[in-house]
Amino acid sequence: MRGHVLSWLTFAPTAGALLLLLARVLMGAREEMIRRLALAFSLVPLGLCVLLLLRFDPAASGPQLVERAPWIRFFGFNVDYFVGVDGLSLWFVVLSAVLTTVSILASWRAIERHVLEFHIFLLLLETGLIGVFVALDMFLFFIFWEVMLVPMYFLIGIWGYERRIYAAVKFIIYTMVGSALMLAAIISLYYLNGGTTFDIPAIAENVRAGRLVLDPATERWLFWGFALAFLIKVPLFPFHTWLPDAHVEAPTAGSVILAGVLLKMGGYGLLRFNLPLFPNATEEFAGLLCTLAVLSIIYGALVSMVQPDLKKLIAYSSVSHMGFVVLGIMARTEMGMQGAIFQMLSHGIATGALFIIVGILSERRHTRLIAAFGGLARPMPVFSALFGIVALASVALPALSGFVGEFLVLVGTYTSDLAHARMYTVLAATAMILSAAYMLWMLERVLFGEITHEENRHLPDVNWRERLALLPMAVLVIVMGVLPNPILRRTDRAVLEVKAATQGAILVRSAPSDGRVPELVRHVSESR
Amino acid sequence: MESLGINYRAIGPELVLAMTGVLVMLLEAFSPGKKERDGAIAAAGVVLAGMAALTLWDEGPATAFSRMILVDGFRVFFTLVVLLGTLLAIFISWPFVGEERIPPGEYFALLLFGAVGMTLLVAGNDLIVLFLALETITIATYVLAGYRREDVRSTESALKYFILGAFSSAFLVYGIALVYGATRTTNLTEMARALSGPLGQAETALMMAGAAMLLIGFGFKATTVPFHVWTPDVYEGAPTPVTAFLSTAPKAAGFAAFLRVFSLTFAPLGIESAADRLASHWVAAVTAMSILSMTFGNFIAIAQTNIKRMLAYSSIAHAGYVLIGVLARDWAAVAFYMLVYTIMNLGCFAIVALWARRGDERVLIADYAGLGFRQPMLSFPLAIFLVSLAGFPGTAGFVAKFWLFKSAWGAGFPELVIIGVLNTVVSVYYYLYVVIVMFFREPKEDVPRVPLSRAFVATMVVALVGVFYLGLLPTRVFALLNAAQNLLAIGAR
């Protein structure tokens, strides 16, 4: 137990899933019992996360709590079971655990059919999610990356809404296209690095130290091999079309996990793979990706504005918010990347909560159309307060979590040495106004004004279970907004290392001629 | 003149299989219709043959019978794959033989005789032996494919199989004759030696033509595009347990022969030699066959409504992936792939056969609607096998594909790898379509549950354990193949 926190954390949900199956087969556990057991099993990883946070040393460099064992050994086919956390992955592990528990709470009444299978898939999904973030071996990473698709596919396909089959297929095909190319890139990188290891930190170190020098064309190909998978996941305009379908058709729990964690894998992947491994290609394509990111931000916000369906509105708002993440990452400044990570966490919680809120409404009224509501503040005061808080967090009201992330991204972009950095910043900042517009307008139409539909007059307010799911999230967005430091302090070290890796490798390859050299050298030496 | 090298141990597996086949047939003659007994004897024979093969593991590399039979790790491994396929096919056939009132002795004997041909094909070191073995396989399987005589589809299947099979055999013999003309030998070891130097102009022309004919012949047997046209019809029409057998064991054996002849005997040496000139041609041809098989197989599979046809096209696509391994000349990767493919495909077919019931009533994908939660003992394993066929990580299908692609990249075929991985994505669509139908759609009418026989449960256990063991902990099998790699009788250069 002491040395294996991450393994326990990763596989506790799988064990939970098996125990659920046994509870049904051997003891004939009924639906309610299954729900309670699943909730209990989901608390185990949550508890382990506390342990993880206590053990994590913010000042240490490189991965921590590392576990390593040979797994597949053959002809230089050296796959290790190699896991560890650093500042990049730490909070996503925690986020996965939190959102799984919240999803189980949020599905208590929404899922009536095949309850056992639902919770089994949800717990298996959690293993996949945590696994992706802790894996430090490319092969292992890829396994978790793909394995996670299967339970998600079932969650959307079995428990989703009307067009669930279309959405599930679209989701899986889009993601598979990206990951198939990533697989080719992984194999290629493996050979280029000497064909001995899939160890990500070791390869990154080789790149940084100039032992692994890729020729520019190869580097471009590999960059896109990885980036495409991640950008589809994020999703960045124009790869975003799977997202509205998947989010809208998925059951509440599916949407929460999708928006809360799955999208973050894209941003995490960019930080983990693209920046440190392909710094020159990153440099080359940063402008393109920033442009796409700004387009995503504006496009997502504009499309959100005209959505009649609550869930669709939130889905498109995700495209917009995730655009900030890519912008921050591609700015490659400390603030930008810190902001990107923070924005991902904030978006995970705020959007997760928003999906739960929509779920609550659609459970009560069996519709998600904005026009079907209005004046809900009167019959559902607690609900409305919670809705207001998370919606405002999502539009980046100062003192709430969204603000910290987007502000850091904007400052980070503004101060970066990207060409047109200021233009990106200004355009992205404009979109913040748009996002305030669609979100506040939606709040107004749903919560305030006269009650337009009689059936809304006696809607029950949130019950204790729904409060249990939503309250912590509302508290979190406030705490994160007021006290962002405990989070930022733990990501700082890793972000600086990514930054040093990107710039260090550029130095090794060829010193830029425009007088930026002294500054770059300073950064590299600072971080060592 | 060297000795004849008569060594009965070297053909131990073949002898055991053949004798078991004869025994089962004789028993049928004297006390007919005892399904349990005949099946048990056949299964025991296969297991015994497997043990006989295992004793050969440490023998090699060696040859026997005037260097016509090889004893090496390659042969033993492929023999085991073939035998595993045969064993599972016997299990799958168990309920079928009873339902269709087929004389069990006859049926199991044919399976066993087919298996004799396959193991011989794997062991052969001489084009004549390879041809004889192929004919043994095809004659047995012609009969098996037409087993439901009163059914038009089955008869059509057998006839088509027979005509196209004979056609492809003709190509093969012609190819053998031409290659013999060029190298003055049918022995593969001799041939490799002859090819390591330059050939005269006439011989070169003969060799090229002969190799092309051989390629066509093997292409037919291994169901690769453009020689695949018989596959869907035959797979659809043949009784499902027979299809299960046809799509796995003979294919593994066929690829073994393909590897022996092309990857190992016709391998380029990197020097100015006939083999290198030849290789530059066959590599191009096989590359085209591989790309076509993957792409056609996968895209046409999408449009299928019959699950057997879908799996037929999927098997064409898988043949395309395997050809990547042939090109990379990594026989161990191909052997592993065939092992995995045999397990997951037979697992699939076991369920398809059970669900199809008597006379193949329920073979449309639409017939699987609502199977998901109605009979999870069928639907979840089927989903797992399909996911493995699609190559999802965590299952054996992924490890097998990964190894193939990795070898191919290392051998300098990155474009094939990229086409391969993109094809995998296409395949996800139709494999998961079955999952959609099973789990996401409601059943049209109330379908009674299918009783699960003991033989079926045994098949499932073997296949599921195989899929996950090879998918998660393949190291031990890899080590075995690694050891075998060093025990090649020919082509170990």
Description:
The complex is a heterodimer of chains A (528) and B (493). Chain A is mainly alpha-helical. Chain A has one domain (2-527). Chain A is 74% helix and 3% strand. Chain A has helices at residues 5-27, 31-55, 87-106, 115-134, 138-147, 149-159, 164-192, 200-208, 216-233, 242-249, 252-277, 279-305, 310-331, 334-365, 381-394, 401-414, 421-447, 464-482, 485-509, 517-527, and strands at 64-72, 79-85. Chain A has a two-stranded antiparallel ribbon with strand order 1-2. Chain A is globular and about 70 Å long. Residues 507-528 of chain A have low confidence and may be disordered. Chain B has a two-stranded antiparallel ribbon with strand order 1-2. The mean pLDDT of chain B is 87. The two termini of chain B are 26 Å apart. By secondary structure, chain B is mainly alpha-helical. Chain B is 74% helix and 1% strand. Chain B has one domain. In chain B, β1 (62-64) and β2 form a beta hairpin. The interface between A and B is large, with 38 and 37 residues.
The shape of chain A is globular
Q: What count of helical segments of chain A does DSSP give? A: 20
Q: Which strand order do you get reading across the main beta sheet of chain A?
A: 1-2
> Which pair of chains forms the biggest interface, and how many residues does each contribute?
A-B, 38 and 37 residues
DSSP strand tally of chain A: 2
